[in-house]
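sorry for the late reply, my laptop died twice this morning and i had to redo everyting from scratch. anyway the thing you sent over, i finally got around to it. pasting the sequence first so we're on the same page, its 424 residues, then the predicted structure underneath. double check i copied it right bc i was rushing
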Amino acid sequence: MVTQSAFFPLQVPTNMVGASFATIDVDEFDDFIISSCNQLFFDMVDCNSPPSCPMQLNQVLTEIDSGEFLYYLHMAYQNRCAIDFELSFVNHGQKHWWLLIVTPILDDSKTNARLLMTGINITEKKKLQQSLDISRNRYRSVIQSVHDCIVATDSENNIVLFNRAAEKTWGYSYHEVSGKNISMLIPTKFRPQHDSFIDTFSKSKDVARQMSARNVVYGQRKDGSTFPAEVSISKMQVDSKVEFTAIVRDISERSRLLEELQHQATTDVLTGLKNRVYLDKELDNEILRLECCTRPLSLLMLDIDHFKLVNDNHGHAVGDQVLICFSKTIQALLQQHHVFARYGGEEFIILLPDETVEQAIKIANNIRQACCDKLHVNDIKCTVSIGVSLFTPNSDNADSFIKRADIALYQAKAQGRNCVKFHE
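ok and here's the structure:
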C-alpha cells in the first residue's frame, strides 16, 4: 500500500503540463487511485464530469477502456519499470489514439512506488499511418497484379523489388533474387552492355528511357533459357543515391509471330525456298557491299525445260512434285552464302556472292548434270537451262544484272535447252 505522504508533493500545477498527465497510487485494496491529474487526462478518457482528486481510476474509465489500460499499469507497477504503449479511447463517439508512458517513481525507501503517466495524442499520426498503409497496400496490390514484370534495384544494382509476373517469367522467387545483383537475370554476353547502359543512364538528365530502343534486350531464366524483352527503365533519387525501376515485358510470342510472318513473307510456300521479295532485297544489299570492296558477284537464272508440258500432260500436282524435287536437288549442291530463290513459275535464280564467272559456270554445269541424273518424278525426266551473268559495277544495276542472265537463259533455250550460257 502506498500513501501520498510517502512521496514529495508535486511542485508543478498539472494543468500546465502540455500532455495528458496523472499520478497514480495504489491503495490497501490494490486499486489504482488518481492522486492528481490535469484536464487533458479527463479529455483523454472522455470524463465530462470528473470527481475531485484523489479518486479511483475505475471512476473515470469505461469498461471498454479499462482492461488493456489496467494491464499495462499493473505491469509497470509490479516490475518497477517504465513502459510505453499505444491505446485508443472513445471520445464523443470517435476513437482517439494515445501514446502512453508510465514511469514508476520510488520513495526514499525504494519499496513503495507511485506511477507517473503522461499521454500524447497521436490520432493524426495514426490516421497518417493508416493512410500510408492503405497507399502501400494499394501500391503492392498494383505491383503484384500487373502482367508486366517490375524489377527495382538499389544504387548497387541489387534487386529490392521483384513482382509475381517477374517470378513467373524468370522462374525465381523473390527470396531467391532479393539483395542479389540484377546481372543474374541477364545473359552473360549482354552483361557488359547492360552495365554500360546503366552507368550512362544514371549520369544523364533523363528520368526514363526505353532500353529496347538501342538493341534487342534479352533476359535469362533460372533454367538458363533466354527470352527477348521489351524494357522501359526509370530512375529516382533515394537518400541522394540513384535507384532504378524496370518494367519488362516478355515478347517471345510476339517475336515468334513476327519471325513467322517474316518467314511467310519471304518464303515460297511450295518449295520452301526464298521468294522473289527476299531475293530482290538480298541483291540490293550485295550491290551496296560492292561499293565498299571489290569482289565478284555472279547470278544464275534457271528454267525447267518443257515444264508446261509436264503440267498439261500430267497435272499440276505432278508439276508441283517436279518443282519440289528440283529445289532439293539444287540445294544439295549450294553453299550457305549462296541465295537460291524461286523467281516465278518454273524460273529460279541463284545469287552467287564472291564467285567469279568461271566458278559460276562450273556451279551451273554441276546443277545441269545433277538435274539430268536425279530430276525424275513418276518416270518423268526433266532437264534445266541456265543463264549466267557477272555484275559490272560501273554499268550494272539490279535490273540489268538479272536481264543479262535472262538473255543468256533465252540463248540456252534457243540452242536446244539442257545447257549453260553466259552473257557478258
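Residues 123-145 form the longest helix (23 residues).
thats about all i looked at so far, will dig more tmrw
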